Each structure stands twice: as structure tokens, then as C-alpha cells.
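Entry for phosphoric acid mono(formamide)ester complex. Fields follow.
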Amino acid sequence: MKQFTSVLDVPDVQALIREALALKANPFAHQHLGKNRTLGLVFLNPSLRTRMSTQIAAQQLGMNVITLNADKDGWALEFQDGAVMNGNTVEHIRDAAPVLGSYCDIIGVRCFPGLQSREMDDSEHIMRAFIRHTGKPYVSLESATLHPLQSLADAITLTETRPKHRPKVVLTWAPHIKPIPHAVANSFAEWVNRLDVELVVTHPEGYALNPKFTGTARVEHNQQKALEGADFVYVKNWSSYSEYGKILNQDSTWMLTQRHLLETNQARVMHCLPVRRNVELSDEILNSPASLVQEQARNRVYAAQAVLKQLLENN
Ligand code: CP
């Protein structure tokens, strides 16, 4: 593996999950691997879990870690080729990225979408510019369209807690007060489609995700019907993809509560965090044993560690 930007970069998903579970059982077994190697983490947007779990993962492999909060501490970056930089941007990615590449052995970048232009966000122009101009192995810390480290952690959590039968997994849209990117939902669908599960996606009209990522998942607009017999419910808001970046619906009946779980198969409930309590998901669920959110967050460490281990071994 030379880069980790989506499930498509992973030659064997099940092997990567097994690797992560082995690291969870023995996190310090490969401390020699990262000796004298540096991971550079660049955040163009806020983070708690991704920042800390990736740093812990790298340290458990013996790596040095440098974090740049580029949104606050860095120079304002320009990404447009040929730009006349007489405005707010101070440094071009063509100049900044090779510097990062010369300091670091692996580069991780978080770059959210602008949610203004679908074409521009779908092109992943920021991520592609970092990959091209740093020239180093790259790990996505969430891009405009995907969040593969989160999805790998979710796949690990599903693998650890799945029942004996082929589970039904429901990805349900939830209300939110702000326009939210599609990355977590896209990525969850893309990864879960590679596991032996039945995936159903439920959302109000106007919230269809890009079919490039949902693939063969069944779409059901009736949330209650979708939830019938579910073993896992993944709760997430996303803004409209067809009316790009817009909020079309804030119907609070879509917020997941205990009542929604009555017809499920005692479903476990997942969310990537951060979660807007009592807007997306009720306190009663988050505070109950049904919630898997802390297990998911913990597995972020081993997801990142498995990915970094493969990048170190292969480069
Ligand atoms: N789930 C997740 O990526 O959390 P952060 O935004 O806090 O990194």
C-alpha cells in the first residue's frame, strides 16, 4: 500500500482488519518499525479523534510525529495553478508541500469539502495536490468525499461485535443544524459493502448519496421500515448531494431514539463522533449499552496503526 485515501487502496480489507485486531492485542510489538521515521499531520480543519488516535498509533510504532494546525498556525495556502497571489493566500501548495515532503516520511492531511462546488469537491483537488507535491506516502485524515480511517475503525468494531448470522446494517440520515459533508456516510457505505453484511441506507427524499460510494446498498426512504430487524444502526447527518451542500430537511422525527429501536434486533448504535446530542441521537441511546461510539473511537487507534504499519513496511 503506497497511500490510504479510500478502500480502493487496500489490497485485502479482511487482512487489514485482522492486522488492526492483532495490534490491539499487542500494540507495542512493532516499535522498531518507525524508528527515525517522522509522520507529519496537517489539519486544515478541526479534529479530536483523528488527531490524537493517529498520533498515538504512530508513537506505538516508534515514530516521531509533527502536527501542523494549518487552519490556525500555517500560512494561508493557495491551490490554484497560475494564481496571481495578491489576495489572502500567502503560500502556494507547490512550494509548501515539497517542504513537508522533505521533513516527513509519511504525510497525513485533513481537508474538508467547501460544499459550494460539487465538481470541485468531487475532484479532491486539495488531497491530490498534497499527494502530488509532497511525493511521500499519504494517509487521508478525511478528505472532501471520504473518511477511510473512520470507516476502517467502524469495520473493526462491526467485526468485533457482529452476531453469528449475516448482520443487517442500517445507515440512517439524522437531522443537523449545519450543512455537513458526505465523507463519513460515503466511506462507511464503501467499506461495509466489502464486508459480509446486508446494507440498507435510509434518508429523506433529496438526500441520496453519490451511488459511486453506496454501490449495491438498498435505499429505503421509510426509516422505520428500514430499521426493522437491524443488528447495527449507523447514525449520521449529511447535506444534500443533488442540491449540493443544502439543508433540505430538519425533521426531528428522524433523530434516533429508543422508540426507533423497538423493531430492530436489539440493534447496537454507531456514530463517528462528534455527535449533536438530542439533535442527531438521543441521550438515552448514547448513555445506554446499545451505544458503540466509544468502542469506535478506541478502534481509531488500531485502524491508524494498521495503516501506518503497512505504509512503513511497503515504502
Ligand atoms: N470521527 C472523527 O473523525 O472525529 P474528529 O473529527 O474529532 O477527528
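NOTE: The chain has eleven helices and twelve strands.
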